[in-house]
Amino acid sequence: MRRDRTPSRSTYQGRPLARPDDDVVDQGLGFDLGTLRGRRRVLQALGLGAAAAGLAACGPPAGAGGTTSPGEIPEETAGPYPADGSNGPDVLERSGIVRQDIRTSFGGPSGVAEGVPLTLELTLTDLAHGGAPLSGAAVYVWHCDREGRYSMYSEGIEGENYLRGVQIADAQGAVRFTSVFPACYEGRWPHVHFEVHPGQADITDASKTIATSQVALPEEVCDTVYAQPGYETSVAHLAEVSLDGYVVFGDDGAGVQLATVTGAVTTGYTAALHVALDTRTEPGAGAPPPPPPGRR
């Protein structure tokens, strides 16, 4: 089961930060190795077996394609702001998390995320059953706001929980979220995080997570959106990163993770992605957050 932890600027997952004023991704190689060792212990504690522990210890990093079936979406980092109970707050325990419109906070907080409208459509299929729709699966989605901040973590919005929500896949394996276009922040290509769980009853049980991955957004659309008011900081940050060289999607230029985006600034955009999963594959439990290019 998930464990509740109190966020701290001086610790991460109960371990002291060597550089308290820097992000978790900037704590150095020693800290990253400790994170990897910790994840192996979690896998073993959850009873996923020696094979899963061996993959975590010796296999290629998530997203490298070494533990996925052909066409299967790669496992990617959940990052330091998942709010799924693995690093501090747990929004998945809260009533109201199953919702389509994730632009507003819920359950008390009343914040609203502003920005260019974005509809996110994910269609899940299961390679273990010939590519059949993965109907009934629960998909948890989260991403940053147009300022590059994550609700429940970033300074000033710790009490908000917007841009987080769960939807249940329909008979075609599809989920749809109403949101806003996320920012590009330092060292990160514009993206949306998601986790897939067998069903709604399983979203609070980390041992049942099917997959953790990310959706990449195409550069040309990002250029257009970031020219709009409120996205000013994203312009410079996008110019500093490359999709081909990005530490998460760079192994194949996003490949099966790059969304098809249609629409316009005036009417809003729709980002669609086919998410092929293999329920026979051991989940990677998300990789530790990678360092940005050129930084350790």
Automatic annotation (TrEMBL):
Keyword Lipoprotein: no
Region (Disordered), start-end ranges: 1-25, 62-87
Gene3D superfamilies: Aromatic compound dioxygenase
Highest taxon listed in the record's lineage: Bacteria
Keywords tagged on the record: Dioxygenase, Oxidoreductase
SUPFAM superfamilies cross-referenced by the UniProt entry: Aromatic compound dioxygenase (SSF49482)
Every Intradiol ring-cleavage dioxygenases domain range: 110-187
Molecular function terms, GO-annotated: ferric iron binding; oxidoreductase activity, acting on single donors with incorporation of molecular oxygen, incorporation of two atoms of oxygen
PANTHER family referenced in this protein's UniProt entry, alphabetically: INTRADIOL RING-CLEAVAGE DIOXYGENASES DOMAIN-CONTAINING PROTEIN-RELATED, PTHR34315
Name by which UniProt lists this protein: 3,4-dioxygenase subunit beta
Origin species: Saccharopolyspora rhizosphaerae
Organism classification: Bacteria, Bacillati, Actinomycetota, Actinomycetes, Pseudonocardiales
